[in-house]
Amino acid sequence: MQEKIAVFVDWDNVRYLLQKIKRNNRDDINNFDFNNPSHLTVLFQSFLEKDESFYRIFFYTAKPLTDDAIEKQLKNRDQKRAFKSYIAKRKSSIYDIATAFLDRLIREPYVALRCGMLKVRGIKNDRPEIVQKQVDMLMGLDISEVAFNKHAQKVLIFSKDTDMKPALKMARMNGMEVLVANFDEEDYLADEILAHCDVVRSRSLKQIDRNLSEYNVLSN
Question: What is the three-class DSSP state of 119?
Fold first, then answer.
């Protein structure tokens, strides 16, 4: 009998980690593109065992801000002047890239998109400093809902952020088996994470990169 597993992905945290692994292993990871939703689906599938299937992949991020929305949050003329200078120099629109990514992502099997909010703190290093809000709260609520209603037998968490500790504790208190995803190339988890999970499940991004051709997604 297949066990259902609910996957929770803190995208900002995971994206930073994947960028770091690719940068440090650039000669061995040639195909995997973390901006390609099909490649991400292969990555998530690689963490399942043969007796497991997805309940859902909850993907946490925030919808991008338009240039006008960013400018409205800037506090003074100097910041707005610096932002306009940044716009003039950049090669592509982050809003367009991020919107296209999310549009493709929601078409992937089992993916449920959960969006927090973006806040502009100001200008730092000649570009807007933008922070994500509400993701931890949304993730905690979804984990609680899955646990209370017994939608799955296990949860698999993609995040190394220690702010995840309350959500992990909540899942275990409600009878869920808590797995935390890890990568062989970046094998570190904080004690706060290890103390509140049942199993650390590790995979090699190098091996996932080599396996992409089996899923016919290299040209997607």
Answer: strand
